[in-house]
User: What shape does this take?
Amino acid sequence: LGNGTGADGVRIVDCTGVVVDTVLYGDTNTEGLLGDGGSTSVVTGVGEGTSLGRWPEGADTNAPADFVGYATPTPGAANTAPGTGTGTGTGTGTGTGTGTGTGTGTGTGTGTATADCTNADGMVINEIATDPGNAYVELLNNGTGTVRLARWELSWGAATYGTPLVLEGADLLPGATYVAGNVRVPGWVHPTGLSGLGTGSADADAVRLVCGTRTVDTVVYGPPGGPNPDGWDDDLVADTRAFAPAPPTGMSVGRVPNGSDTGRSDMDFVIGVRTPGRSNVAGGTPTDTGGADTADTAAGSDSAVASDTADGTDTADGTDTADALDTADGADTGDDATTPRQPDEDDLKGGLLGCATGPTRPPGAAMLLVACAALVARRGRRCGGGVPHRPTNPTLS
Assistant: This one.
């Protein structure tokens, strides 16, 4: 990889031989290297121990101005706003009667990156569960454009908003979720204990989502029409009384229909079973009354798996070995049927997985085949022929 003496380049070419992207960098392009669109312009400023990065992140106009220099490289992390600097100069002059002076100055500075609030109108707080040690807040991109959550803030409190949780750099596509809490679910998760999240059992408590200086969404929850001694404001009314219901133990409150947002928490939120990372449902009975939700695929650490009889449409959790995320566990006949459980090593040993090709491949075979291949890599076993067992199980689709 060239160090930028003269001109050097990096290029991405797709599997059909088409050039997807080219970056030329260095001092001067005396070699006549061609970039995208036939440009010979180079990005300057590269040096030992530094990096070049696109700012705004991902900017691509095929011009050197897309890139800025970073004194500290950030591989795998978001690029930050470039810093600004000021310089001072001094000069001296000599002469008879008149004098001239020259001066030079150098400056260094640091810039504070700000949150990107593009498409923020589509973001909502979609579900809240407050069980101590097992709480979570689910965010949903309910809009039509991608939302970049890096440096957004989530705040909560029982009397006042505490120190906000700064969200990690997730790009949420429309319909995608981001869950903050002690849960293990598909998609974006920010593991945290959510210390200080109020239960709303005695009076109102609140959660809010902020981008920069803008409050994007607020949910106030507590006893219906009950006291609001802390004066929480929702998105429409100061010192509101339009509360979402308080989540009972082992349950959550969520927007039903999923993502609905009228601006009134009392109209949008209902009590239902815990569904982190999945569509909300109304009603049911507690499905998880003990332990952290960090082992939803292992019945041994979940203190309420055996008595779980109302996890959506689940009617046979007594022999269920994968709790809320299980949709194809043999004796389990209905567990939500919204998020398939990922096959595990027991499935490979028990013969659940097979390799299928051709028009006979049933729904779900592709997912199972990928899982089988991953397990083969770990366990050194072969993928057997034929199609996955239980092909008539409707949850495989």
Observations:
- The chain has three helices and 16 strands.
